[in-house]
Amino acid sequence: MEPSNRSHRASATGGPRTLSAKGRQTQQAIEDAARKLFAERGFHGTTLVDITSAAGKSPAVFYRYFDDKEDLLAALADTFLRDVVLPSGVRVQLPESPHDSGFFVAVVTAYWDMFKQSIGIMVAVDQLAATQPRFALLQNQFRQFGIDIVSASVRRAQDHGYAAGVDPEHTALAIALLFEQFTTVCLRPDTAGLGLRVSDADAITTLSTIWKKTLYGF
Questions:
Q1: Domain 69-216 annotated CATH 1.20.1250.40
Q2: How far is Cα 39 from Cα 178, in angstroms, rounded to an integer?
Q3: What CATH code is assigned to 1-67?
Q4: From the first residue on, what is the mean pLDDT of each consecutive set of 10 residues in the chain (218 residues)?
């Protein structure tokens, strides 16, 4: 029989509860199913029964790990932010010169790949952020990661004698939101009706070129 504890919650004594190997497998199956379905149908278009059915589990088993669908999304988003997004920023090296196109391509490639792998989480968080403060906070934490990198690149361009008179924070916000919307529209299955297919390579080239030209003009 699977355990009734939840790995992302504290036990009665204040410490984290530990799942058995079978419990971890069950929780992972539920989380994997949710990621896939959120990407395909969005948060509101996915029911709890959809998730448990795709995971091969019963709704009763779901409640051993999560309170509800929103609790599951919050756990997925927290893990993504902590384990994937935040560590990525530590490895970023700013442009060495105005001709360092490799910086922009490398950062955009990492951003695109990270977003693509977790599009379900990003779309679901976006859908709930408009009405629920905890998801708005998570979305802003995702955004702040991009804003910090872009604002640092603006300051580096100014060190190189470019982007004079440009406010780093305002420019970073504009570029980060452009990236977010472009990436979401291109990667969401339900936006295919636009009739424009963008390959990963084309998307990365487009975003990195816009970013670099905004700062350096070439």
A1: no
A2: 20
A3: 1.10.10.60
A4: 42 51 90 91 92 94 94 93 79 88 94 90 90 93 91 96 95 95 82 73 96 95
